[in-house]
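Extended Data, panel c. Modelled sequence:
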Amino acid sequence: IVKEMMVLPVVSPFAAMLCTILGYTVLLVVLQRARRRVRIPFIIWIGLGNAVAFCFGWHVHEKAILMIHVPLLMGGLMGGGSTVVGPTDTWRLAVLANAAVMPLLFRAEELILNWVILAAGIVIHAYLLDIDIIRAQKWWLVTATAPQFYGDFLHHHILADNYWFLPLALNSVMTALLLTQGLSLIMRRIDAA
């Protein structure tokens, strides 16, 4: 059942399918052009393909980002495709994935646990991928977690119980924008390789 939204535009499944096909076409052209110059492991192809489906898919939810995160993390940890999908890309995606699934723990008594899980995930991924969080990545960390911070700590004080959907919408939009930006950076790096 599809519900009509009062605030967000309604995107038909057909329009989502056309955008997904266009996104896959661009990705395949970029990957095929780079294939002769650089070896890109299949697991990286899977992660990038899932990123296209996530960005343009008709039914997207927070857990779907794990379809992108897991293959790219495995590729990053195995050292595959290190020239095109480096540790920084993988860490950024880990932060984004952790922040995107935060709304799944939404009760007040889970608030502290939610932020502890987010912090632990960020630190563990930084350690595994040898990333200096403070020096190089603080802007990504702040941008990816800002919508959830707003929803957990500020929204109730600013808008009370009005616009209850706003924190979720902000989280979804920020996830989509950051993922699209990350995917475009990776695709440009692949095309230039």
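The two ends are 44 Å apart (CA to CA). This feature is highlighted in the accompanying rendering.
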